[in-house]
From TrEMBL:
Signal peptide: none annotated. Belongs to the tRNA methyltransferase O family. This is Uncharacterized protein family UPF0066. The keyword Repressor does not apply. Pfam families: TrmO_N (PF01980). The keyword Cell membrane does not apply.
Amino acid sequence: MKLKPIGIINSPYKTRAESPHQGRYSEELSKITIFEGYADGLLGIGDKKYLLIFYWQDKAERDKLQIVPRGKTKKKGVFATRAPVRPNPIALCLVELVGVDGRTLTVRWLDALDGSPLLDIKPFWADIDCL
C-alpha cells in the first residue's frame, strides 16, 4: 500500500500542545495547498460548505496500542479513542470551507499541525455522514 500526499497543511499549530483537543473547538484558520498535479480535483469545491480532511499525523507516536485519553484516568485501546497515537496515524477532521484561492483552501476547525501532509478531501453531506 502506498499513500501519496496531495497537498500540505499550513496551520497555526506548531506542536501537539498548541493544537485543540478537537478542531471544532477552535475558530483558528488554516490553509491547505493542493499540489499542482492535483489541482483539477478542486473543480466545484467552492460550492461546498463543509469538507472532510484526511491527513497524515507525521509527528504522532506509532508504537502504542493503549493510552490514557486526554482528560481521562482509565486506559483504553487506541481504536476506542480519537487520539493521534495509532499504528497508521491517519486523521479525519470536519472543517468549514471559508474560501478558495486557486489551489489554496482556507478552512476553520482543522486541528492538524503545521506542515502535515494532506491525503484526501471529501465533501461532507449530512444525509450520508450523519445518522
